[in-house]
Amino acid sequence: MTDGDWLAGAFEEHREHLRAVAYRLLGSMSDADDAVQDTWLRLTSADASEVENLGGWLTTVVARVSLNMLRSRRRRPEQPVGDSWPAPVEASAVDGPADGAGAPAPLGDPENEAVLADSVGLALLVVLDTLTPAERLAFVLHDMFAIPFTEVADVLGRTPDATRQLASRARRRVRGAPSPDHAANIARQREVATAFLAASRGGDLSALVALLDSDVTLTADAAAVPAGHPAVLHGAEMVATGAIAAAARAAESRLALVDGAVGIVFAPAGHLRVVLALTVSEAHRITAIDVIADPDRLRGLRLAVLPD
Questions:
Q1: Dihedral sign (CA 167, 150, 65, 10)
Q2: Is the predicted pLDDT of residue 99 greater than 60, yes or no?
Q3: Strands 212-220 and 286-292, how do they pair?
Q4: What is the pLDDT of residues 114-157, one digit of tens each?
Q5: 196/264 same-domain check
Q6: Domain endpoint, select from 142, 175, 208
Q7: Structurally, how many domains does the chain consist of?
Q8: How far apart are the C-alpha atoms of 81 and 257, rounded to whole Å?
Q9: Quick one: CA dihedral 143, 149, 152, 157, positive or negative?
Q10: pLDDT tens digits, residue range 8-30?
Q11: For residue 154, how many other CB atoms are within 10 A of its CB?
Q12: What is the phi/psi pair of residue 303, to 5°?
């Protein structure tokens, strides 16, 4: 076996753990895979014979790569994240720290993974997205993967005491994470938003009207209207007709968390153009739709694209 074969084999042993770390930090599987690939490239250009703890070294590198990506994302907020919710990675991240340095944590059973992805994991993703990159990294590495503060501090370029404070602030926010009742609200919103998007794509007027409250109001900012003026539509029939008129856009739209609630985003080629913020009643009816296209308003939104 060549040194290259040994290195590739050793890296594969740690790949799932690295994906779990990167996914928790980035909230996006495609970004997590990019971070893991970057970590592999850095490993191949380093002298692995001088690395005493390969798992720890790889975790540190993938954390640094992810931190850079988080900071870059904050500078370019137009691109929504959270493109998928892979159960094995999610379970690996939640089941606890690795058994050994850099070794993958055990996976949960499929039923538990599905429940986790749809409730607890989704709620936690919302909270993590409110943290600063440094807070998120300190919390994820220490609290989720049991990495010592001294090592986390090295990744952040801060003192261990400062890193403890970051993790403490993040922990306080996470402890205020959405309750099971909120998770149920998210599930209801998602069900209604899924049906609304499907009816819009299919041009099904009656299905749209059935999903809309009779007094529903749609508001659109000036950037969302061809005439360049804000618009307001009232009533289920009028709003449903407007949704059908936008069927072509609906075909390329996806569900997303919009400031913690389920909405719809139109982001062709990853460039955010329009967001529909939905208000869903306990009666499973949409009572309000806010169509947002103004770049300044879009930049102020917290977004995470949901899996299909």
A1: negative
A2: no
A3: parallel
A4: 333 333 355 566 677 778 899 999 999 998 889 999 999 999 99
A5: yes
A6: 175
A7: 2
A8: 10
A9: positive
A10: 898 999 999 999 899 888 877 78
A11: 15
A12: -125, 145
199 plus 171 within the same structural domain: no
Q: Which of 88-102, 211-225, 276-290 has the lowest mean pLDDT?
A: 88-102
Residue 56: C-alpha distances to residues 21, 130, 141, 148, 153 (Å): 12, 27, 11, 11, 14
Query: Going by C-beta distance under 8 Å and a sequence separation of 6 or more, which residues neighbour residue 216?
Result: 234, 235, 236, 239, 285, 286, 287, 288, 289
CATH code at 219?
3.10.450.50
Q: Record the pTM.
A: 0.52
Whether residue 160 sits in one domain with residue 112:
yes
* 14 and 153 share one domain: yes
Residue 113 has pLDDT above 70, yes or no: no
> What one-character-per-residue DSSP string does 154-218 give?
HHHTS-HHHHHHHHHHHHHHHHTPPPHHHHHHHHHHHHHHHHHHHHHHHT-HHHHHHHEEEEEEE
**Is residue 23 a contact partner of residue 29, using CB atoms and an 8 Å limit?**
yes
Q: Is 264 helix (H, G, I), strand (E, B) or coil?
A: strand
Query: Residue with structure tokens 């062709």?
Result: 268
pLDDT at 2: 64
Domain span at residue 25? 3-175
Q: In what order do the strands lie in the sheet with 303-305?
A: 231-234, 212-220, 286-292, 274-280, 261-266, 253-258, 303-305
The region of weakest confidence among 21-25, 56-60, 98-102, 129-133 is 98-102
User: d(Cα 59, Cα 141) in Å, to the nearest integer?
Assistant: 9
Same domain, 10 and 148: yes
